[in-house]
Amino acid sequence: MESTPYLLPNTQGRYVTVVENATTGRVERINDDGSRTIYARYFDEGGDSILEATENASGEFTSNLVQNNEGFKRTIGNSVIEATGTTPAQPTEPNSDQQGGSTPVTTPGETPTQTPESLMLYYPEDIMSSNQDIISFQAHKYQSGLANRIPSLTGEFELGAVEYIPVNQTVFLPIQSAITDQNSVSWQSDTINPIEIEAARMSRNLMDNPLSDWGSIAANTIGQALNQIKNDPRLQESIRTYIIGQAVGVNNLQSRLNGQVLNPNLELLFQGPQLRPFNFMFKMSARNKLEARSIKEIIKYFKKNMATIKGDDNIFLKAPNVFKIRYLYGPNREIHPAINLIKMCALTNCSVDYTPLGSYATYNDGTMVAYNVTLSFQELTPIYDKDYDTFNYGVGPSVSNHPIGA
User: Fold this and answer.
1) How many angstroms from the chain centroid is the CA of residue 394?
2) How confident is the model at residue 57 (pLDDT cuts 50, 70, 90)?
3) How confident is the model over 305-322, as pLDDT tens digits?
4) Tell me, what's the pLDDT at 267?
5) Which 3 state secondary structure label does DSSP give 378?
6) I need a surface site. Which of 101, 222, 352, 382 has the fewest CB within 10 A?
């Protein structure tokens, strides 16, 4: 949520206050070309509202913030009330005797844009106002059940889709190096020897005939096999050795005694699809108190959403939340056209290194000087050929797949 554009005392330019949650937000300057730059961050600490200029703020803004901090706080406080809807927004007339007055500069008839900023966690602090490519992680509740998955009608030979319900927050982080995907399917070698082939042929012959004829067909087939063995002494000896080996549980008796084996008809056979793993590592180091808070909230976000959910009845445990992962490109945050798409994923491992620099060091408030967060995900469903035409994350409508595919 954000406020109507306003003027800050003793500065030039229009500003908006963007509310992130109950205690944090940021002040953005609206540039002449319509883009925005984060000039300040604010947060509540023990009931005291702290306002910090960012490194992107102009010298004029920073100087006036130091000299007129209370006036800035008052103006921003009014804009927070407006953005959150606590009270109706009222235009404030400029008052030269009162520092901190604000003048709304919204064009008449113009409706301020409302954005779900309170639903966002991100690092670094200026990532959302830049054109930097980013990656988003949105947790979803895993909701299944008999009615969801088992079709009510006969002739539907597949499970119904799992329902995923988004939770309140989404994490936005810069795209890291070592971006990879692994598309794989399972193939394994397997064998079938001539005796097994004959058994399969006999079984098929039985299936192709009425049940009443199975006895006579089986007797004729066995009789033909016995006659073939009787008429060929070499085959007779080999079959006899094979049967003896099977009877006593010695699989290699044929090779041990006769130096031969039944033709295994070895082939590589398709076994099924495999689920893709995805690994990410994010290095985060706070440059101010607000980034320190964001980093800790992001780490907690992943830990909490991957945790097993304990039901009130203490009888069953519920599946952890799962994640929708997207690479976003350019200022409009479109789906990245040159990196693979990812289906809904489970977070299988979250590892946090609190001393990635090799030694223990903290800031004055106890925040570690750096954090390394390693995340291991695995897709919940396989990739199929049709996903390369239209792709379904598992939640929401299908989208057209782009040239790089899934």
Assistant:
1) 11
2) confident
3) 999 998 777 788 999 999
4) 95
5) strand
6) 222
C-beta neighbour count of 325 within 10 angstroms: 20
pTM of this prediction exceeds 0.85 = no
Q: How far, in Å, CA of 371 to CA of 286, rounded?
A: 9
DSSP state of 2: B
C-alpha distance from residue 232 to each of 224, 328, 364 (Å):
13, 72, 92
How many other CB atoms are there within 10 angstroms of residue 293's CB atom? 19
Q: Can you read off the two tokens belonging to residue 293?
A: 């808070």
Q: How far apart are CA 53 and CA 67, in angstroms?
A: 13
List beta partners, residue 281. 374
CB count, 10 Å around CB of 280?
A: 17
- Enumerate the β-bridge partners of residue 378: 277, 346
Structure tokens at 371: 């954090």
pLDDT at 184 (0 to 100): 94
- Each residue of 61-92: b (16+ CB within 10 Å) or e? bbebbeebeebbbbbbebbbbbbeeeeebeeb
Q: Which positions ≥6 away from 313 have C-beta within 8 Å?
A: none
394: nearest Cα among 378, 384, 380: 380
Amino acid present at 325: I
Q: Is 38 exposed, middle or buried (CB count within 10 Å of its CB: 0-12, 13-18, 19+)?
A: buried
Sign, CA torsion 50/54/58/63: positive
Which token pair is 103? Answer: 């003048």
Q: What is the pLDDT of residues 336-381, one digit of tens each?
A: 989 999 999 999 999 999 999 999 999 988 999 999 999 999 999 9
Reduced to 3 states (helix: H, G, I; strand: E, B; else coil), residue 197 is helix
pLDDT of residue 89: 37
